[in-house]
Amino acid sequence: MSDLMDQLSKTVSYIRSRVKTEAKIGIVLGSGLGNLAEVIKVDEAIDYADIPHFPVSTVKGHGGKLLFGELGGKKVIVMSGRFHFYEGYGPHQVIFPVRVMKLLGVETLLLSNAAGGVNPNYKVGDLMIINDHISFFTTNPLMGKNDEAIGTRFPDMSEPYNKELIAKAHAIAKANNIKVHEGVYTAVTGPTFETRAEYKLIKVVGSDVVGMSTVQETIAAVHCGMKVFAVSVVTDIGIREDDNIITHEEVLQAAKDAEPKLTLLFTEMVRQC
User: Fold this and answer.
1) What is the CATH number of the domain that holds 141?
2) Which of the listed residues 35, 144, 249, 261 has the most CB atoms within 10 Å of its CB?
């Protein structure tokens, strides 16, 4: 057994000693989006700090618990707060919880994040379904020795975000009068917000939003055979002529204002998965 599989085994064993819930759907909540946890019927909540080999959230707006419960009539495992490369965690630590979810039985992963708008047609508070991503600006979490027990050495990434789940999300949004965009997410390391020149570059390469998470988790999920669906909440507009100053507090407030739409979308997605 590899060191990684040994760590994963110990983590999963601990969680199973605390929780009997079997769930096929996992959810990761991004910055300022933790209130979705309030509508989950929680059976068990485990502090990250209590879980062997688990990192701990250090960013304002992120919870620090792994939740097990029910949403939309289905059992779910929810990360209330994620981990980021910019916090000082290595890529393998960032994706460790995704692999844990897989070993706990999760087959479909729903991801959310707060992102900066690059597409000029987007407004603060809009939702964007991610149909592809650009990850050249971040470290690939699969670098290093590959464990075939987790996934293949060279996973295909031609469809990282499941087309059937995307179609289902559009139908749910239309039925509930929720405006959604669909586009490309570019991941950067953070923690600095982008310069004007960087925003222009990100726009030129074909991105609609930019953020500091999600892509490494998606790569890990695809690597181990999960279906992935992801949504960005546009919490700021990156390229502005008059004022390009962005604060984390503004991002959290915009995410909070958009939460009812995201909560409805995710609840119905879980119900129909």
Assistant:
1) 3.40.50.1580
2) 261
